[in-house]
Amino acid sequence: MPTTRPWDQFDEAKFNPCGVPGAWGELSLGSFSKFGDLAQAGFGSLEGPLVAQPASNPTYVRYFTAYNRIEYEKIASKQWYLRAKLTAEPGGAVFDNGSVDVKAAWMDMAHVARPERYYTRDATVLDPVTGSASKRKVGLVGLHIVQKTPSRPQWIWSTFEHVDNVPDVKLTNGPFAFNDGTATHMPPKNPIPLDRVLQSPTPPPFNVERVHPIHNSTMNTNKAYRQALSGTVWANYALVATQWPAKPNSPQTPGSPANTVPGLGTATTAFANTTMETFGQRGISTSCMACHTVTMQATDFVWSLNDHAFPPSTATPNLIMANPAFRELRALLERKTQADVAEASRAGASREAPK
Nearest to residue 235, comparing CAs of 138, 118, 140? Predict the structure, then answer.
């Protein structure tokens, strides 16, 4: 049965998938499921991996999620890592103000064109094929920061990217980490199945594009901060979007698009991260809050608590539809797809109507 240690104590190496003991500053990128650090979050199932350029030396992007001390100690004290404790919580789990989640996307720095432009760390990285771990230098390419505040109990959701991720005339001219600079467009869905990570060699990368441009006001904010950070690697990162509840001090209001900023009618600008929601950039119904509101009542918007509690909902990481919350999430995506098809049909009929 899982247990937790105090915030300032660390697990032994045998409890780490990379086989290294925990310590301050130690970064290990691996998962006992072999999928947890490689899969992108999806609507009702895990999505396939993201592969970084160059095509001559493709490598998988790795994902890492962490909590701050306030959030960690709430989980530990309430034993919410046990599904029985979590589901027995009256009204669902509720985190304290000041709780912070972060999710980071890390890229192997081998053969990166301009490594000096990245924030880098030495990490222990697990090979899902061999099961062995090795030290690698990795660079930060994407970052979510989610924080719960007194006036925004549905949390405030911000996402950042490295400016060299994808072509964007407002940011940089390349070379790019996830686009070869050619006219080849991003495929409509991930061409790499998740279980492909269990085979060698790493598949070739596909081109990634930013589907919607970053909002002008956000770009103005980026310009000011990048000037202030000039001369540091942080000048090479940019805020993509921030989403928050439109109505303050209203914890019972769901985080659906109609209740958020940006919300309905504003999906013409970026609201998703190209490294973590590569194929979820099309509509605001797949935004941060729209996705996480499905688990609002059960786990206070925190999916990682919902799908990592023990025992797991299912033994197969990519087949998690036994969880009712994931079934609801898939239904949301299906409704969104139907709405997109209907809108495209109306637009086509309008264009073809006689003038």
Answer: 118
Q: How far apart are CA 201 and CA 203, in angstroms?
A: 6
Q: Residues 65-83, buried b or exposed e (16+ Cβ, 10 A)?
A: bebeeebebbbeeeebbbe
Structure-token match 């688990």, residue found: 295
In whole angstroms, give the CA distance from residue 109 to residue 163.
16
Can you tell me the mean pLDDT for 316-321? Answer: 41
Q: CA–CA separation, 322 vs 65, rounded Å?
A: 23
Angle among Cα 172, 176, 181 to the nearest 5 degrees reads: 95
Q: From CA 49, how far away is CA 107, in angstroms rounded?
A: 12
> How far apart are the C-alpha atoms of 323 and 319, rounded to whole Å?
10
Q: In Å, what is the CA distance from 113 to each residue of 174, 188, 221?
A: 9, 27, 27
In the chain, what percentage of residues exceed pLDDT 90? 65
CA distance 93 to 299: 5
pLDDT class of 53 with cuts at 50, 70, 90: very high
Q: Give residue limits of the domains in the chain.
A: 13-352
Q: Which residues are within 8 A (CB) of 308 and not within 5 positions of it... i.e. 6 or more apart?
A: 81
User: Going by C-beta distance under 8 Å and a sequence separation of 6 or more, which residues neighbour residue 204?
Assistant: 51, 55, 58
Nearest to 107 by CA among 281, 280, 276: 276
Mean pLDDT, residues 77-91 taken together:
93
pLDDT at 346: 56
Give the separation between CA 238 and CA 244, rounded to whole angstroms: 18
